[in-house]
Specification:
This protein is mainly β. The protein has helices spanning 2-18, 237-244; strands at residues 33-39, 45-52, 78-79, 84-89, 96-97, 99-103, 106-114, 125-131, 137-143, 160-165, 170-174, 183-188, 195-199, 203-207, 227-235, 259-260, 263-280, 289-294, 300-309, 315-321, 327-334, 337-344, 351-359, 363-368, 379-383.
């Protein structure tokens, strides 16, 4: 019995020794050209992004702030510069060459074709051809959604204002059907990122009580005090397939690519509806009011605030800076402890200032986080809304 146990122990040691892992150097995969280009006949210029797939060869700086003029590098990507990027209408074999944007003397992988150089026409087919300095070629085709005979470029991009009371209203949308279209895409900009949905119908209703199922915790879709852009576009099959598919972060599989010789999207859309939705709500609690304060420099500042979502201990707050267009407020209220974050736009990523203080019946008093702008009012007085 003892001998049998000793034999089992010896076998176990041999098995464990055989399972030891040794370090193996694995060569990084070959880089692939990645394209993101969506033609829009209403746009003043067509933007085509060309980058390299991430293989581990390049060190990515993920601490930089996003810059729309350098979207690939500041989003953690590797731009492909000095490529020959062309748009070719119909059977044209030469096409129009896109110009690469430069920033601080460096290429960005962002290529543009102004409308004056090539006007994208609804209902027309276009091809994409990219040739990199390494000799790689990427191609693709798209058929732009059609437009009525009286269509004028840029008119559909003019946004119409609309008011929405979150507790009582429903935003109802409708638009004419479009030829050469796969479906329609509805998008609402929110503090938690875009809300996005495809619809085969030419009618859609968004209640004020809708939730944003694309964000963690299912926050509200509409934020009282915010002016939230909404758009409806007709999209081609390439756009639909790419955006309905997913990407395996390890293998890169699952993504429906519409280009040959690389990965990514070459599609087209046409704008149908644009709205700037001014969101309000009923006043229920003392915080729901207009608040007025004076900065240290003597400037008058006005806020409209609402208790956005009540909670058992911590409630969410939202609102708008009335004296500076384009600035909105999110925050929390816990008991009488108040935290207000002023945003430069509607995204939580664009923080301008952070105010921490106390709420009383007719005043808010506190201070600002020195990491951000700190010249706001330290005392706010409650006033009725006008």
């Amino acid at each position: 019995m003892v001998r049998h146990r000793a034999l089992i122990g010896l076998v176990s040691l041999v098995v464990l020794a055989g399972c030891e892992l040794s370090a193996v150097d694995v060569a990084p995969p070959t880089a692939t050209v990645v394209v993101h280009a969506v033609l829009n006949p209403d746009a003043a210029e067509q933007v085509l992004l060309v980058e390299s797939s991430l293989t581990g060869r390049a060190t990515i700086n993920d601490t930089v702030r996003f810059n729309a003029s350098d979207p690939i590098r500041t989003a953690g990507g590797v731009p492909i510069s000095n490529a020959d990027v062309r748009l070719l209408p119909d059977a044209d074999t030469v096409g129009v060459q896109a110009t690469e944007s430069q920033l601080n003397g460096r290429g960005t992988g962002r290529y543009v074709v102004p409308r004056a150089t090539l006007a994208i026409v609804p209902g027309r087919a276009y091809r994409l051809r990219i040739r990199t300095v390494e000799g790689l070629t990427v191609t693709g085709e798209t058929l732009v959604p059609s437009a009525p005979a009286d269509w004028v470029p840029g008119v559909a991009t003019i946004s119409a204002p609309v008011a929405l009371s979150r507790s009582t209203d429903t935003l109802r949308l409708s638009w004419p059907s479009v030829a050469n279209v796969r479906t329609y895409a509805i998008r609402v900009e929110t503090a938690d990122g875009p809300w996005f949905l495809f619809s085969d119908s030419t009618r859609f209703a968004l209640p004020g009580t809708s939730r944003n199922f694309f964000a963690g915790g299912l926050p509200a879709l509409w934020y009282p005090g915010f002016i939230q852009p909404l758009s409806v576009v007709a999209v081609d099959r390439n756009f639909y397939d790419y955006n309905r598919s997913g990407n395996d972060p390890f293998g890169g599989t699952g993504l429906i690519s519409s280009v040959r010789g690389g990965l990514g999207l070459f599609g087209s859309v046409r704008m149908l509806v644009r709205r700037d939705v001014t969101v309000t709500d009923r006043d229920r609690v003392p915080l729901d009011a207009r608040w007025v304060g004076t900065t240290g420099a003597g400037a008058l500042t006005e806020l409209d605030l609402w208790l956005e979502t009540p909670g058992p201990t911590i409630s969410s707050v939202s609102g708008r800076v009335l004296t500076t267009p384009g600035r909105f407020v999110v925050g929390t209220l816990e008991g009488d402890a108040l935290r207000l974050i002023t945003l430069n736009g509607i995204s939580r990523a664009d923080t301008l200032s952070v105010f921490t203080g106390r709420l009383s019946a007719d005043a808010m008093t506190g201070s600002y986080n020195p990491r951000f702008a700190a010249d706001g009012p330290t005392t706010w007085r409650r006033q009725p809304r006008r």
